[in-house]
Here is the input.
Amino acid sequence: MKLFSETRGPVLELTRHFAGRMFESELFSAAGSWRSAAIGAFSMLLVTGVAAFYTGKLPVGRANASIASESGRMLLFMAISGLLAVFQWQALLPSRSDYLALAGLPVRPRKVFTARFLAFGLFAATAVATLTFLPSLLAPPIAPEHSLLTNAAARGVTSSMACFFALFTMVTVQGALLNLLPGRVYARCSGYVQGISAAIFFLCALESWHVAEWADAGTFLESFAWAPPVWFVCLQTDLLGRGNDSMQALGERAVWASAAALVSAVAIYFVSYWRYRNLLLESSAPARTGATRGFNWIELLVRDPRRAAVLEFMDKTLSRSRAHRLTLLGYGGLAFGLLINSVLLALAAAHWRVDWDTLLRFMVLYWPLAASMILIPGLRHALSVPAELNANWIFRIHESLGRAQWMSAVEMFVLAYAVLPVFVLLTPAAIMVLGWAVGLRMVALESLAALSIFEFLFYSWQKLPFTCAYT
Here is the structure.
């Protein structure tokens, strides 16, 4: 314990500081409870890693099916690693508050930057080891002719390389956006990139459980030689002495891809040092106010000034707060991944024979309810996260004033942002597929179900949105 209690220099101390704050976020946990959040997160990683190896018996005597099954597991590990990088996106770079908090200390900004990178590297290494190494020891062997330790080592090394490939690829993407986009564009564009990346990784994680079913006779490697999970499975097979020439070539591709991802991530990260400091200063500049105002739907639809002010406040907070945008984009990515996965499962059940009429009927009947079950709880979560926790005392003092207008505005806001868009897009498709009479009745029925979900979740809602962390 003496090793950790003594001061070891600014970089090490800052690394310990940033590593301890990795899980301290208003989105997930209260300040100071990072240990509980970390234990829960790593326990979920461990359980997921073990479950990935026990979702079915490993095919014996069918090399192609075995490679497909291992590719599915590798895809799951890469998807989880990509999601970790997406949701810890802000932990990759120091924030303005980090620089301001440390401004009075004799610490160079370069050391702050280096410590933040080391903290993320420590977090990534711990997460990857939890996800891959212990489950590899518990998993059934791939090559029975080798010892259990040899099988576990081959699995653990290649799975870790695949996870780091996904993590460092996301670091490279962030660095590329940082260096290619202007400051104000980067702040908004990076949020959308996070949302799209979350949708892709969610979809990959869902599809990973079905990769083993794609192992048609002798065609898996030829069909999916372009996919990174297959490269790492071929490397794993080659390390166990079971690979042929084509597998060896794909395994070498995995090694080169991992090295390229690591080198490019480190290089672009430190190239971004001066650029990122300028971005922090640029983003802190006051926004210019124009003389003309654009179209405002709130003023058009809401006449009560209190409700209009509340809706305006919620709309501005949602559009300006990066944390809240990330929350909604994460839920949107989950919804998109589930909806696309449902279509893929329906096509697989029909043996990939595309019947557009049946497929559209399935989408009209299933998608609205599935989207409502994800988007409405997601918006509720976003509304419950304070935009500025230190300022909630202002709202505690005045929360009794206009409470009815607050609650009415919340209802209108959720309906406008989470329920209405789904059914505005649904109605033309439902009428086209089912006809006017049946289509309108189906839309009415699904709207009633969505409103029931909303009523169930918001029946006891008494929070002022974006303003407080208490019930």
Q: What stands out?
A: The two ends are 40 Å apart (CA to CA). The CA atoms of residues 394 and 467 lie 9 Å apart. DSSP finds 18 helices and no strands in the chain.
